[in-house]
Design goal:
Largest sheet of chain B: 6 strands, mixed
Radius of gyration of chain B: 29 Å
Strand content of chain A: 5-15%
Structural class of chain A: mainly alpha
Number of helices of chain B: 18
Oligomer: heterodimer
Number of strands of chain B: 11
Strand order of the largest sheet of chain A: 6-5-8-9-10
Largest interface: A-B, 86 and 89 residues
Chain lengths: 758, 490
């Protein structure tokens, strides 16, 4: 693998404004070590400050990788590992070089053993020193050429040349690994092996070591030969059995020619001819005295030394220089392969593709609260049910949906502003009020504020809650919505509808496209029911008042101090009985008291808002009287608890403490004494009236449920605030209570008739 | 000279996937908040796309338009003269209390204000919705801002998309440069086409978008290259994985086989995790069952005949995988051991065979040892599964929240092709090099034998084989999705 040739597109341009310094090889090596470490660990080391440093550099991706590596907390350890590896390699190479020197000397010594007395075979010495290495040099050259060709052709992998250098580096690696095992060391070894041992750098590293070793080998040989030549007398000869002497002359002359050119003394043709040794103890040619022989030996020695220098050390020196130069170049051009998965996965952190700009236009609280739903002032008589679609596609079963038994008045489908105006006008100007108004919406539509606004407007045209049909649930499921998601969508719709004033119980999920007979019948029945809802027939006030009388009699019958008999829980029990009365006929619960979601325990906040809402209903005339104000607060608080408890029996066990309720009541009444003792408003005064008043208020409000709040206030005003003084008086016993309740009922009927007439 | 910075406002009706669009464009599943409810995004949030660290495109997510009918009505009421410049009306609206923080149109005002600050608006449409008058009013409001608008049809890959009727409606409103961009299922070119659509309306920003398109292409190439490398690495590790067992010990051989299997399984799991991380899908970002993996690992065991059938891998003879593989085990061990090989194989559907290195095998036999390796069918299955996963990840938008299921995909039935890859060059070479496999290297390291790391020689060879393998895998990931990688909803 060679980082520089792969994926050139990844070599990013410098992103910063100022030219960044390219990372050094050591830094890249460190990055590779980190990569090996992370690869072994299976996941990247996450260190915020390292990433930060990298991002802040504004350099290209590769530089950022190296900067991150440098800033990791494990970097020092890896660097030490690299240092150890480096010195280990250096020591090994040094040792091998010394060894090579010794071997070179040894080879020279072995080759220069005199054949006879002082005679030494020149070619034997030369071959012993240069022979093997020359062959290896040739093979290295061939290998290098082949490697170059393959690299060019394949562009990728580089087969390692099995060379002396490779062997040396492998040994050094092995030695260093033995020195220290464990994650970081392994990572370092792998990184070094990958960066320095493969590709171009690897090739030129091994080749440098190879040539250095052989260079030192030659130097060793040379040193020994010089030593021998200076300390001993040698006669250089040559001998042959089958070759013609002319060959030797030619060979020697060919060998001497370059040497002579460099300036060394070389044997003359006569010297060569005279140096042949035929095995006899005396040279064939007559010795021409010592002088010429000595000169000849020196010339031969000069040729020998020069040959080792020129043919042995020379090429190795050149190749060593070239290899080192090439290695330096390879090191300089080495790039991390940033397409490696371990690097690529860092990209998101180091070279983010985006940068958050944050919130530019923050949400400043909720959208404007929905305006109070104002119903038309004049009550009209109830006509047939009417149906209107809101942003729906015409159902497959036809529009309007065919519902047996319910003659539906078709108001069409609202989509545009014009449709909306048309329907609202039609509803507002009609003689009768639809009983009820049926609004059809699709579950696949997201309930938005535009829809909420239209719902509110539609709600405002009628006095009773419209019936909201949510259709097309199947279409939603076909979009891949799962049960939970459909449920959530239903919940969003419910929220929007209740906000718009639609009664929670009047929201039905019915798929008009897939309407079964049973479902259609149920729906028709529901419409029928809706038409009757406005009538007074289902009146429970008498029953409720009977409950109050019964409770009052029970309290009176008990012995003991009054404060103990008329406890808060008694009050709660009374309110619960009243509330259950209004639940048994499957009437919609009064939205005033639908405060706590089903199953949850009512919190004090719920109680407080119950009190606030109930007190909001009280007409000014009642509010002016402290007893009635207290009764209103108690009815709100206890009524809220009673309905909640009714909804979820579990919640009964977890009612908020009365002390807390006392605080709520105290705040509502602005009477600090209540906080200390809630019973001051709960019959603590010793008067049954203080307990009956809230119950009666509660019952009347429940009786009036479904009307708008202004209407309820008016009826309350007419019932409790007018004229009869004895309503203010105390009620000492159950008989007085019954009497009082009779009065109230009478007033209530009158007020109701007056309200209907108005 | 850097290209000019482009500012884009992402607008649209509520719950159409504006934030999802941004998530997918940013490849960041943690941007903003996404839910199937109206008004999930309530503020304007911006982010800037960087190319080579240089900010190029600013994207702003805006709250959805909800009451466009009311808003248009309101805007019309603010009109003073008949021929007034619409932008003036919009500015008058933005200055009015209705647009204030608690105003009736506070949300809409945020979107409109941001559009006025931007160079272009991307109008996101849920293609499953019917085109309604409220959408027309929305576009009417947006067009009053006098900014080019590119409608973006989202969720086109879902059932019930009304793509053509939307296109027709938009053409009637003179919006012709409509882009189709599904934030959940992203194909290779849809993003590029979206940027090109923007280019047609924004001549000044042509270089910006060109740079972005080029960058996106490079990113994708990088991603594929890295994925291919991870897969190649896995395959070499699996192919080279070798365990040596005494020839005549059947019990040990069976134990070793099970061990090898669990090693390979674990290695595949590593690869899956690495792929998920590479593609920036983190378990915390998506539902745990939102990928074809159960608890982040493949539901179907690698060594089950079902897995092979599903991915269309046929074992050598084409008969039931288990039995055949068992027979191979028996044959390849020269019938010397594992007399019950066929039975064992059939029972577990195993896939192990002896390697190709005859010299080593001879040596092992002399030492009374046998080697266990993964067989070709297993390698083929490994490859098919990872390629399948990568393809699914490449087309999965970072806004996707629902489960993605893969059918057996890559090359159903064309086992010949798998066969050639399974034993071709690199893997065949890997088989003869047990030390190339990190799987068994680490296993032997744990027991104290073996050497850590690879020698530079082995490393070079492995790298060369891996490079060659990556070149084979890369085009297979990029292959067009013909009859493969179906996404199906349950």
């Amino acid at each position: 693998m060679s980082g520089s040739t792969r994926a050139p597109d990844v070599d990013g341009r410098s992103a910063g404004d100022e030219p960044s310094v390219r990372p050094s090889l050591d830094e890249r090596l460190l990055a590779e070590a980190v990569r090996a470490l992370e690869r072994d660990g299976g996941e990247p080391l996450v260190e915020r400050n390292a990433n930060q440093a990298a991002v802040q550099s504004r350099a290209d991706f590769e530089s950022r990788i190296t900067i991150r590596a440098r800033h990791l907390s494990s970097a020092p350890e890896l660097e030490r590992g690299l240092e150890r590896l480096r010195s280990g390699t250096a020591w090994t190479v040094a040792f091998v070089l010394v060894l090579a020197f010794v071997l070179g000397a040894g080879a020279a010594r072995a080759a220069s053993v005199p054949v006879d007395g002082s005679r030494v075979n020149f070619y034997w010495v030369l071959g012993g020193v240069l022979g093997v290495q020359t062959l290896l040099l040739l093979s290295w050259t061939a290998g290098a050429v082949l490697w170059g060709i393959r690299r060019r052709e394949e562009g990728g992998g580089s087969p390692m040349l099995v060379s002396l250098g490779g062997l040396v580096v492998t040994v050094s690696r092995w030695v260093t690994q033995k020195a220290g095992a464990g994650g970081p060391n392994r990572a370092v070894a792998e990184a070094a092996g990958r960066v320095l041992g493969t590709g171009r750098i690897g090739f030129w590293t091994f080749s440098s070591v190879t040539h250095a070793v052989w260079l030192v080998f030659n130097l060793g040989a040379l040193a020994l030969i010089l030593l021998l030549l200076s300390a001993r007398q040698y006669d250089f000869v040559w001998e042959t059995t089958i070759l013609d002497e002319r060959h030797y002359v030619v060979m020697t002359e060919a060998l001497s020619a370059p040497v002579g050119m460099v300036g060394f003394a070389v044997p003359t043709a006569a010297d060569i001819a005279e140096s042949q040794w035929t095995g006899a103890s005396v040279p064939t040619r007559a010795p021409a005295g010592n002088e010429p022989t000595e000169g000849r030996s020196q010339r031969w020695a000069s040729l020998l030394v020069a040959s080792i220098l020129l043919y042995g050390a020379g090429p190795r020196l050149l190749l060593l220089g070239a290899s080192l130069a090439m290695r330096r170049r390879a090191c300089r051009t080495f790039r991390l392969d940033t397409t490696l998965p371990e690097y690529e996965r860092l990209r998101a952190d180091l070279m983010p593709a985006s940068r958050p700009l944050g919130v530019v236009d923050p949400d400043e609280g909720d959208v404007a609260p929905a305006g109070q739903v104002s119903t038309v002032g004049t009550p009209r008589s109830t006509g047939p049910p009417a149906i209107v679609g809101l942003e729906i596609a015409r159902p497959g079963s036809g529009w309007p949906p065919a519902l047996d038994g319910a003659g539906l008045q078709n108001l069409g489908i609202i989509e545009s502003r014009e449709d909306r105006a048309r329907v609202l006008h039609a509803l507002g100007s009609a003689e009768t009020e639809p009983g009820p108004l049926v609004i059809v919406c699709e579950l696949s539509t997201t309930p938005d504020r535009g829809i909420a606004r239209t719902l509110e407007a539609l709600r405002g045209t009628v006095t009773t809650s419209p019936l909201l049909l949510l259709t097309a649930g199947q279409a939603l499921r076909e979009r891949g919505y799962e049960a939970g998601q459909v449920e959530r969508r239903l919940e969003s719709w419910r929220e929007v509808a209740v906000q718009a004033g639609v009664d929670g119980a009047s929201i039905l999920a019915v798929d008009l496209d897939h309407l079964t007979d049973a479902a259609a019948a149920r729906l028709a029945e529901r419409l029928e029911e809706g038409t009757n809802a406005g009538e007074v027939s289902g009146r429970d006030l008498e029953a409720a008042f009977a409950v109050i009388e019964r409770h009052a009699a029970k309290w009176e019958a008990r012995d003991g101090p009054l404060a103990e008999r008329r406890t808060e829980s008694n009050q709660l029990a009374l309110h619960r009985d009243i509330a259950s009365l209004y639940r048994t006929k499957a009437r919609p619960a009064n939205p005033l008291f639908l405060l706590a979601p089903k199953g949850s325990r009512p919190a004090l906040a719920d109680v407080k808002s119950g009190v606030d809402r109930f007190m909001g209903l009280l007409p000014p005339r009642l509010r002016a009287k402290p007893r009635w104000l207290a009764a209103g607060a108690v009815a709100g608080a206890v009524g809220c608890l009673a309905t909640s408890a009714l909804l979820s029996p579990v919640a009964l066990a977890a009612l908020p403490t009365w002390a807390g309720i006392g605080a709520v009541l105290a705040a509502a009444l602005q009477r600090p004494d209540v906080e200390a003792d809630p019973s001051t408003v709960l019959g603590g005064s010793g008067d049954l009236a203080d307990m009956v008043r809230p119950a009666a208020l509660f019952a009347v409000v429940l009786e009036l449920q479904g009307r708008d709040e202004a209407s309820i206030t008016r009826v309350l005003d007419g019932t409790f605030a007018e004229g009869v003084p004895d309503l203010e008086a105390s009620m000492p016993d159950a008989r007085a209570v019954a009497n009082w309740l009779d009065h109230v009922r009478h007033r209530f009927d009158l007020a109701l008739i007056r309200e209907e007439r108005a | 000279m850097s290209p000019p910075r482009l500012t884009v406002a992402v607008v649209g009706h509520t719950n159409t996937g504006k934030t999802s669009l941004l998530r997918t464009l940013l490849r960041d599943a943690s941007f903003g908040e996404v839910s199937d409810q109206p008004a999930t995004t309530r503020d304007v949030r911006g982010t800037v796309l960087l190319v080579d660290g240089q900010p190029l495109v600013e994207l702003y997510d805006t709250p959805g338009l909800e009451d466009s009918i009311g808003l248009l009505e309101h805007l019309e009421s603010l009109r003073i003269t008949q021929r007034e410049d619409p932008v003036q009306i919009v500015e008058r609206f933005l200055a009015s209390p209705e647009a204030g923080s608690r105003g009736r149109f506070a949300q809409e005002a945020k979107a409109v204000r941001q559009l006025l600050r931007s160079d272009v608006g991307l109008y996101v449409i849920d293609a499953r919705d019917r085109p309604l008058p409220k959408h027309r009013d929305e576009l009417a409001v947006l067009s009053m801002c006098a900014r080019p608008i590119v409608p973006v049809l989202n969720f086109i890959a879902k059932p019930g998309a009304n793509t053509s009727s939307w296109r027709e409606q938009l053409s009637r409103l003179n919006l012709h440069a409509t882009a189709e961009f599904d934030t959940v299922v992203v194909d290779e070119h849809s993003e590029q086409r979206l940027f090109e659509k923007m280019q047609t309306l924004l001549d000044d920003f042509r270089p910006t978008l060109d740079a972005l398109i080029a960058d996106r292409r490079i990113q994708r190439e990088r991603l594929i290259a890295s994925s291919a490398r991870l897969i190649g690495d896995l395959l070499i590790d699996a192919a080279a994985a070798t365990l040596t067992v005494p020839t005549d010990d059947e019990r040990q051989a069976r134990e070793a086989m099970e061990r090898l299997r669990s090693l390979i399984r674990r290695r595949e799991q590593q690869c899956v995790e690495a792929l998920l991380e590479l593609h920036r899908f983190h378990p915390e970002d998506c539902d745990p069952d939102a990928l074809p993996l159960e608890d982040g690992s493949w539901g179907l065991d690698l060594f089950s005949p079902d897995a092979m059938m599903k991915f269309g891998v046929r074992t050598s003879s084409g008969a039931a995988a288990g039995a055949t593989v068992g027979a191979i085990v028996d044959l390849s061990l020269l019938g010397a051991s594992l007399g019950a090989g066929t039975a064992t194989g059939a029972a577990i559907g195993a896939a192990l065979s002896a390697g190709h290195s005859h010299g080593r095998r001879l040596l092992d036999r002399l030492r009374g040892q046998t080697e266990l390796r993964c067989d070709t069918a297993t390698l083929t299955l490994l490859e098919a599964r990872q390629i399948d996963l990568v393809r699914a990840l490449l087309t999965r938008g970072h806004a996707a929240q629902e489960p993605l299921r893969l059918d057996g995909t890559a090359e159903t039935g064309s086992s010949s092709r798998h066969g050639t890859l399974g034993l071709s060059g690199s893997l065949a070479r890997a088989r003869a090099q047990p030390n190339w496999s990190s799987v068994t290297r680490e296993a032997s390291l744990a027991t104290g034998s073996g050497t850590p790391g690879l020698s530079p020689f082995a490393l070079s060879g492995r790298e060369a084989a891996l490079d060659a393998l990556v070149e084979v895998i890369r085009p297979r990931i990029q292959e067009p999705h013909t009859a493969s990688a179906h996404r199906r909803r349950s």
